[in-house]
Amino acid sequence: MPRLAHIIWSHSEDHAREEVLLADNRRRLFAASCVALVANAMAFAIRCDILGDFVKTFQFTRKTVGEAIGWGAIGGAAVLFLGGALLDYIGIGTALWIACAAHVCGLATIICAQGFWSLTLGWFFVAIATSMVEAAINPLAAALYPERKIHIMNVLHAWWPGGLIIGGLLAVAVSWLLEHAQASEALLACSWQIKLAAVYLPVLLYAILIFGQEFPKTERAQAGVPAGVMLREALRPLFLILVFCMFLTASTELAPNAWVGEFIKDIVGFPGILVLVYTSGLMFALRFFAGPLAHALSPLGLLVASSVLSTLGLLALSYSTSVAVVFLAATVFGVGVTYYWPTMLGITAERFPKGGAFLLGIIGAAGGLFVSYVAVPGMGALHDHYTLNSLPPEVAEQVLDKEKGRVDEAKEAALPPAGQKIVKTARQTAAANTFRWVAVLPAALVLIFGALAVRERLVRKPEDLPPPAT
């Protein structure tokens, strides 16, 4: 009997130790996912701050800058789509290592860019990195915490605004330090490269966190759902509606954020990157409370409320006349867009579990592609259009770059103070009109999500995976 008791005790000790190791591994992998998302977000925030530097350094229009980013995003969206489909075969760990390599190559290419195509190539690599991170961490989070997907997706994606805060504050700090240190013109000219190089820090950290770790299989692979069933899930009408909604939700959240640094400066002369930092702080805090809110309102009810607030926030930004009003409007907008991206992913994971990583990849690709290739360049083009159309003909003639169809900053600087004020007013009008156009997107979502919420109350069929294959 003592021998038997010893064996039972040893076995229970081994089992407890194994559970502790699994818990530690789960926490480490989730932390790695959060840091990888921080790297994505820092690159996005710093890009928001340096878009104007691209205009000056390469003598581009805002539309051309948007296209340089957008062309790269096409490849990134394709990678996210394929990554979701192939994740069960290549493994989550491999996907994250590919993301790490793409981050390293992309940042180096942008920092050394000499023109449109090298800039495009750099953002292409960064888009691949962003997409592979997205393709990997969403199924990973669902596999690590299958019992609370909506909440865990929001906690994970709280680190997107967390990364925006870090990147935004870093960008402002670098600019402030160089300006107050009376840096040389050459150093000021490469300040955007210094800012971008800081993204290497979280890339290195998530590489360290995933090194030597074992990754779980995706939920679909664990359950043994056939590939044919997974593919059929992508053709279900409700999922196709969600893909269309992702075009609009992602554009509402990310496209204004991409241009906020420039547009807020145009409207009230305030560094718009600080507004991005502020709204990101709101998002970071609020996403930790997504679970109770989704339970109280339902996930679709939460998206309806988000769309109402996003519409009001964008309209309020377009009519802002002071820094105080900008921050009030940004508060409404920031609260509105907080739950868009993670809740869309959570709904997809909950309603279509048989689609697994493939459907999560499609949803992410839909959002990223539309934002980068349509919404961001579109906002840039609208701004250029309204700026020129708001100028008196005699002023437009003096500052127009006829070859590129934009205001030439050098010609603008040569204008007398009265002329410069006219151009400044034109840019203010352009930024306001562009925000109003974007407000149409969440307004449409109020109707779509409202209809889906009503449908859900009338017809609700639970969706479950089969038990894991043994």
Please, could you describe this protein's structure?
- There is one protein chain.
- The chain is mostly helical.
- The chain has a single domain, classed as Growth Hormone, Chain: A (Up-down Bundle).
- Helices cover 83% and strands 1% of the residues.
- It is built from 22 helices and 2 strands.
- Strand 1 and strand 2 form a beta hairpin.
- Helix 2 packs antiparallel against helix 18 and helix 17 packs antiparallel against helix 18.
- It is globular and about 70 Å long.
Describe the structure concisely for a colleague:
The chain has 470 residues and is an all-alpha fold. It has helices at residues 2-58, 62-90, 92-111, 116-144, 149-156, 159-180, 185-189, 191-197, 200-210, 219-223, 227-233, 237-268, 272-286, 290-297, 299-318, 323-337, 340-351, 356-389, 393-399, 409-413, 417-438, 440-458, and strands spanning 400-401, 406-407.
